[in-house]
Amino acid sequence: MALIRKLPIELNIGFIRRRALFLVFSMALMLGSVGVFLTQGLNLGVDFRGGILMEVRTPQPADLGELRSRLGGLGLGEVSLQQFGEPTDVLINIAKQEGDEEQQIQAIEAVKEALGPGVEMRRQEFVGPKIGDELKEAGFLATVLALLGIGFYIWLRFEWQFGVAALIALVHDVIATVGFYSLTQIEFNLATLAAVLTIAGYSINDTVVIFDRVRESLRRYKKLPLGEVLNKAINMTLSRTVLTSFTTLLALFALFFFGGEVIRGFTAGLIWGVVIGTYSSVGLAVPLLTFIKVRRGGADEEDTEAETAEASS
How far apart are CA 233 and CA 67, in angstroms? Predict the structure, then answer.
Protein backbone atom coordinates (compact mmCIF):
# COMPACT_ATOMS: atom_id res chain seq x y z
CA MET A 1 0.00 0.00 0.00
CA ALA A 2 1.31 3.42 -0.87
CA LEU A 3 2.33 5.40 2.20
CA ILE A 4 0.39 8.41 0.92
CA ARG A 5 -2.87 6.50 1.50
CA LYS A 6 -2.17 6.46 5.23
CA LEU A 7 -2.46 10.23 5.36
CA PRO A 8 -5.82 11.60 6.57
CA ILE A 9 -7.77 12.42 3.41
CA GLU A 10 -10.60 14.40 5.00
CA LEU A 11 -9.81 16.47 8.07
CA ASN A 12 -12.12 18.59 10.15
CA ILE A 13 -10.14 21.68 11.03
CA GLY A 14 -12.23 24.72 11.87
CA PHE A 15 -10.83 27.22 9.37
CA ILE A 16 -14.02 29.25 9.05
CA ARG A 17 -14.45 29.42 12.82
CA ARG A 18 -11.03 31.08 12.98
CA ARG A 19 -11.63 33.45 10.05
CA ALA A 20 -11.34 36.56 12.24
CA LEU A 21 -7.85 35.45 13.28
CA PHE A 22 -6.85 34.90 9.64
CA LEU A 23 -8.22 38.29 8.63
CA VAL A 24 -6.32 40.06 11.41
CA PHE A 25 -3.12 38.26 10.41
CA SER A 26 -3.60 39.13 6.72
CA MET A 27 -4.31 42.78 7.51
CA ALA A 28 -1.22 42.96 9.72
CA LEU A 29 0.86 41.31 7.00
CA MET A 30 -0.36 43.72 4.32
CA LEU A 31 0.06 46.82 6.50
CA GLY A 32 3.51 45.65 7.57
CA SER A 33 4.50 45.03 3.95
CA VAL A 34 3.31 48.48 2.87
CA GLY A 35 5.10 50.05 5.83
CA VAL A 36 8.40 48.33 5.04
CA PHE A 37 8.05 49.28 1.38
CA LEU A 38 7.42 52.95 2.20
CA THR A 39 10.31 53.18 4.67
CA GLN A 40 12.94 50.98 3.01
CA GLY A 41 11.81 50.73 -0.59
CA LEU A 42 13.11 48.03 -2.91
CA ASN A 43 16.70 47.22 -3.74
CA LEU A 44 16.16 47.86 -7.44
CA GLY A 45 18.46 46.06 -9.82
CA VAL A 46 20.11 47.45 -12.91
CA ASP A 47 16.99 46.58 -14.92
CA PHE A 48 14.94 49.27 -13.16
CA ARG A 49 17.34 51.89 -11.87
CA GLY A 50 19.85 51.85 -14.71
CA GLY A 51 23.55 51.15 -14.34
CA ILE A 52 26.20 48.59 -15.19
CA LEU A 53 26.38 44.97 -14.09
CA MET A 54 29.50 42.87 -14.66
CA GLU A 55 30.21 39.27 -13.72
CA VAL A 56 33.89 38.32 -13.59
CA ARG A 57 35.97 35.31 -12.59
CA THR A 58 39.40 35.82 -11.05
CA PRO A 59 42.26 33.30 -11.51
CA GLN A 60 42.60 32.95 -7.71
CA PRO A 61 40.00 33.30 -4.91
CA ALA A 62 38.83 36.90 -5.16
CA ASP A 63 40.17 39.47 -2.70
CA LEU A 64 37.16 41.81 -2.49
CA GLY A 65 39.00 44.42 -0.43
CA GLU A 66 41.76 44.70 -2.98
CA LEU A 67 39.28 44.81 -5.89
CA ARG A 68 37.26 47.56 -4.16
CA SER A 69 40.43 49.55 -3.74
CA ARG A 70 41.23 49.27 -7.45
CA LEU A 71 37.73 50.17 -8.68
CA GLY A 72 37.10 52.83 -6.04
CA GLY A 73 39.76 55.07 -7.55
CA LEU A 74 38.12 55.17 -10.98
CA GLY A 75 35.62 57.89 -10.04
CA LEU A 76 32.61 55.91 -11.27
CA GLY A 77 30.42 56.69 -8.28
CA GLU A 78 28.84 53.90 -6.25
CA VAL A 79 30.53 50.55 -6.96
CA SER A 80 29.48 47.41 -5.07
CA LEU A 81 31.11 43.98 -5.25
CA GLN A 82 29.50 40.71 -4.25
CA GLN A 83 31.03 37.26 -4.18
CA PHE A 84 28.74 34.43 -5.26
CA GLY A 85 28.95 30.78 -6.24
CA GLU A 86 32.64 29.87 -6.46
CA PRO A 87 35.22 31.89 -4.45
CA THR A 88 36.52 33.21 -7.77
CA ASP A 89 33.17 34.60 -8.99
CA VAL A 90 32.41 38.27 -8.35
CA LEU A 91 29.42 40.43 -9.29
CA ILE A 92 30.25 44.10 -9.86
CA ASN A 93 27.40 46.63 -9.71
CA ILE A 94 28.18 50.16 -10.89
CA ALA A 95 25.92 53.20 -10.71
CA LYS A 96 24.72 54.59 -14.02
CA GLN A 97 27.12 57.07 -15.56
CA GLU A 98 26.21 60.56 -16.64
CA GLY A 99 25.86 60.78 -20.40
CA ASP A 100 24.88 58.44 -23.18
CA GLU A 101 25.84 54.91 -24.16
CA GLU A 102 29.40 55.97 -24.94
CA GLN A 103 30.02 56.93 -21.29
CA GLN A 104 28.72 53.52 -20.13
CA ILE A 105 31.06 51.72 -22.52
CA GLN A 106 33.99 53.84 -21.34
CA ALA A 107 33.19 52.93 -17.74
CA ILE A 108 33.18 49.21 -18.61
CA GLU A 109 36.53 49.52 -20.36
CA ALA A 110 37.97 51.39 -17.36
CA VAL A 111 36.85 48.59 -15.03
CA LYS A 112 38.37 45.93 -17.29
CA GLU A 113 41.66 47.77 -17.33
CA ALA A 114 41.64 48.20 -13.55
CA LEU A 115 40.95 44.51 -12.99
CA GLY A 116 44.01 43.66 -15.03
CA PRO A 117 44.86 40.63 -17.19
CA GLY A 118 43.79 37.16 -16.16
CA VAL A 119 40.33 38.21 -15.01
CA GLU A 120 37.69 36.52 -17.15
CA MET A 121 34.72 38.66 -18.17
CA ARG A 122 31.69 36.34 -18.01
CA ARG A 123 28.83 38.84 -18.37
CA GLN A 124 28.34 42.57 -18.79
CA GLU A 125 25.22 44.62 -19.31
CA PHE A 126 24.04 48.16 -18.84
CA VAL A 127 20.63 49.81 -18.83
CA GLY A 128 20.06 53.52 -19.29
CA PRO A 129 17.83 55.47 -16.86
CA LYS A 130 15.15 56.03 -19.52
CA ILE A 131 14.90 52.32 -20.27
CA GLY A 132 14.82 51.62 -16.52
CA ASP A 133 11.85 53.97 -16.06
CA GLU A 134 10.05 52.39 -19.00
CA LEU A 135 10.62 48.93 -17.53
CA LYS A 136 9.21 50.10 -14.19
CA GLU A 137 6.02 51.34 -15.86
CA ALA A 138 5.73 48.22 -18.02
CA GLY A 139 6.28 45.94 -15.02
CA PHE A 140 3.65 47.72 -12.92
CA LEU A 141 1.17 47.67 -15.81
CA ALA A 142 1.82 43.96 -16.46
CA THR A 143 1.17 43.14 -12.80
CA VAL A 144 -2.09 45.11 -12.64
CA LEU A 145 -3.40 43.69 -15.94
CA ALA A 146 -2.48 40.15 -14.89
CA LEU A 147 -4.41 40.51 -11.62
CA LEU A 148 -7.45 42.02 -13.36
CA GLY A 149 -7.35 39.30 -16.03
CA ILE A 150 -7.26 36.57 -13.40
CA GLY A 151 -10.12 38.19 -11.48
CA PHE A 152 -12.17 38.44 -14.70
CA TYR A 153 -11.52 34.76 -15.44
CA ILE A 154 -12.72 33.73 -11.98
CA TRP A 155 -15.82 35.90 -12.42
CA LEU A 156 -16.62 34.14 -15.72
CA ARG A 157 -15.98 30.69 -14.31
CA PHE A 158 -17.82 31.12 -11.04
CA GLU A 159 -19.86 34.07 -9.78
CA TRP A 160 -18.79 37.62 -9.03
CA GLN A 161 -18.44 36.86 -5.29
CA PHE A 162 -15.74 34.30 -6.06
CA GLY A 163 -13.97 36.77 -8.36
CA VAL A 164 -13.89 39.45 -5.67
CA ALA A 165 -12.56 37.01 -3.06
CA ALA A 166 -9.91 35.69 -5.46
CA LEU A 167 -8.83 39.19 -6.45
CA ILE A 168 -8.45 40.28 -2.81
CA ALA A 169 -6.38 37.15 -2.09
CA LEU A 170 -4.17 37.84 -5.13
CA VAL A 171 -3.57 41.46 -4.14
CA HIS A 172 -2.73 40.18 -0.64
CA ASP A 173 -0.14 37.77 -2.09
CA VAL A 174 1.45 40.41 -4.34
CA ILE A 175 1.69 43.02 -1.54
CA ALA A 176 3.12 40.44 0.88
CA THR A 177 5.72 39.40 -1.72
CA VAL A 178 6.76 42.98 -2.42
CA GLY A 179 7.08 43.42 1.35
CA PHE A 180 9.25 40.31 1.49
CA TYR A 181 11.64 41.74 -1.13
CA SER A 182 11.68 45.10 0.64
CA LEU A 183 12.40 43.55 4.06
CA THR A 184 15.15 41.21 2.83
CA GLN A 185 16.55 43.78 0.36
CA ILE A 186 17.02 41.01 -2.18
CA GLU A 187 17.67 42.67 -5.53
CA PHE A 188 14.40 43.38 -7.33
CA ASN A 189 14.85 43.00 -11.08
CA LEU A 190 12.96 41.60 -14.06
CA ALA A 191 13.49 38.03 -12.83
CA THR A 192 11.99 38.78 -9.43
CA LEU A 193 9.10 40.61 -11.09
CA ALA A 194 8.50 37.39 -13.02
CA ALA A 195 8.48 35.60 -9.67
CA VAL A 196 5.67 37.90 -8.45
CA LEU A 197 3.55 37.09 -11.52
CA THR A 198 4.35 33.38 -11.17
CA ILE A 199 3.17 33.49 -7.56
CA ALA A 200 -0.12 35.03 -8.69
CA GLY A 201 -0.59 32.17 -11.17
CA TYR A 202 0.26 29.51 -8.58
CA SER A 203 -2.00 31.02 -5.95
CA ILE A 204 -5.00 31.31 -8.26
CA ASN A 205 -4.56 27.70 -9.38
CA ASP A 206 -4.84 26.58 -5.76
CA THR A 207 -7.79 28.88 -5.17
CA VAL A 208 -9.69 27.60 -8.23
CA VAL A 209 -9.37 23.99 -7.02
CA ILE A 210 -10.84 24.91 -3.63
CA PHE A 211 -13.53 27.12 -5.21
CA ASP A 212 -14.59 24.19 -7.41
CA ARG A 213 -15.13 22.09 -4.31
CA VAL A 214 -16.92 25.01 -2.61
CA ARG A 215 -19.37 25.31 -5.51
CA GLU A 216 -19.94 21.57 -5.54
CA SER A 217 -20.55 21.53 -1.78
CA LEU A 218 -22.93 24.51 -1.94
CA ARG A 219 -25.12 22.54 -4.35
CA ARG A 220 -24.82 19.32 -2.41
CA TYR A 221 -25.38 20.54 1.15
CA LYS A 222 -28.14 23.11 0.74
CA LYS A 223 -29.43 22.98 4.30
CA LEU A 224 -26.12 23.21 6.10
CA PRO A 225 -24.99 26.66 7.32
CA LEU A 226 -22.75 28.44 4.82
CA GLY A 227 -19.74 28.44 7.16
CA GLU A 228 -20.00 24.70 7.68
CA VAL A 229 -20.18 24.05 3.95
CA LEU A 230 -17.14 26.23 3.26
CA ASN A 231 -15.20 24.54 6.04
CA LYS A 232 -16.06 21.13 4.64
CA ALA A 233 -14.83 22.16 1.18
CA ILE A 234 -11.50 23.39 2.56
CA ASN A 235 -10.92 20.18 4.51
CA MET A 236 -11.81 18.04 1.49
CA THR A 237 -9.04 19.66 -0.56
CA LEU A 238 -6.53 20.22 2.24
CA SER A 239 -4.47 17.07 1.63
CA ARG A 240 -4.13 17.91 -2.06
CA THR A 241 -3.25 21.54 -1.28
CA VAL A 242 -0.57 20.64 1.28
CA LEU A 243 1.02 17.88 -0.82
CA THR A 244 1.16 20.06 -3.95
CA SER A 245 2.78 22.92 -2.06
CA PHE A 246 5.22 20.57 -0.31
CA THR A 247 6.45 18.98 -3.53
CA THR A 248 6.73 22.40 -5.19
CA LEU A 249 8.80 23.65 -2.26
CA LEU A 250 11.14 20.67 -2.53
CA ALA A 251 12.00 21.66 -6.10
CA LEU A 252 12.33 25.35 -5.20
CA PHE A 253 14.64 24.68 -2.26
CA ALA A 254 16.86 22.58 -4.53
CA LEU A 255 17.04 25.49 -6.99
CA PHE A 256 17.66 27.96 -4.17
CA PHE A 257 20.64 26.08 -2.73
CA PHE A 258 22.14 24.63 -5.92
CA GLY A 259 20.83 26.84 -8.73
CA GLY A 260 23.40 29.58 -8.38
CA GLU A 261 23.34 33.26 -7.47
CA VAL A 262 21.68 34.39 -10.69
CA ILE A 263 18.31 32.78 -9.86
CA ARG A 264 18.55 32.89 -6.04
CA GLY A 265 16.43 36.01 -5.69
CA PHE A 266 13.86 34.55 -8.08
CA THR A 267 13.60 31.25 -6.17
CA ALA A 268 13.56 32.99 -2.75
CA GLY A 269 10.52 34.96 -3.84
CA LEU A 270 8.83 31.84 -5.18
CA ILE A 271 9.42 29.96 -1.91
CA TRP A 272 7.81 32.78 0.03
CA GLY A 273 5.05 33.05 -2.55
CA VAL A 274 4.14 29.35 -2.43
CA VAL A 275 3.83 29.54 1.36
CA ILE A 276 1.80 32.74 1.39
CA GLY A 277 -0.26 31.70 -1.65
CA THR A 278 -1.20 28.41 0.00
CA TYR A 279 -2.17 30.26 3.15
CA SER A 280 -4.29 32.84 1.31
CA SER A 281 -6.19 30.19 -0.66
CA VAL A 282 -7.24 28.44 2.55
CA GLY A 283 -7.21 31.18 5.17
CA LEU A 284 -8.35 34.21 3.17
CA ALA A 285 -10.08 33.50 -0.17
CA VAL A 286 -12.66 31.02 1.13
CA PRO A 287 -13.40 32.73 4.48
CA LEU A 288 -14.04 35.97 2.55
CA LEU A 289 -17.04 34.27 0.92
CA THR A 290 -18.83 34.34 4.27
CA PHE A 291 -18.72 38.16 4.21
CA ILE A 292 -19.65 38.54 0.53
CA LYS A 293 -22.69 36.26 0.92
CA VAL A 294 -22.06 33.87 -1.91
CA ARG A 295 -25.26 32.58 -3.55
CA ARG A 296 -26.36 29.03 -2.75
CA GLY A 297 -27.52 26.47 -5.36
CA GLY A 298 -27.32 26.62 -9.19
CA ALA A 299 -28.97 25.70 -12.45
CA ASP A 300 -27.75 22.10 -12.36
CA GLU A 301 -28.61 21.39 -8.77
CA GLU A 302 -27.88 17.94 -7.47
CA ASP A 303 -30.00 16.04 -4.98
CA THR A 304 -29.34 16.31 -1.28
CA GLU A 305 -29.37 12.66 -0.39
CA ALA A 306 -25.86 12.84 1.05
CA GLU A 307 -26.81 15.76 3.28
CA THR A 308 -29.94 14.03 4.49
CA ALA A 309 -28.07 10.81 5.21
CA GLU A 310 -25.33 12.73 6.99
CA ALA A 311 -27.83 14.69 9.10
CA SER A 312 -29.66 11.53 10.17
CA SER A 313 -26.47 9.64 11.07
Answer: 59
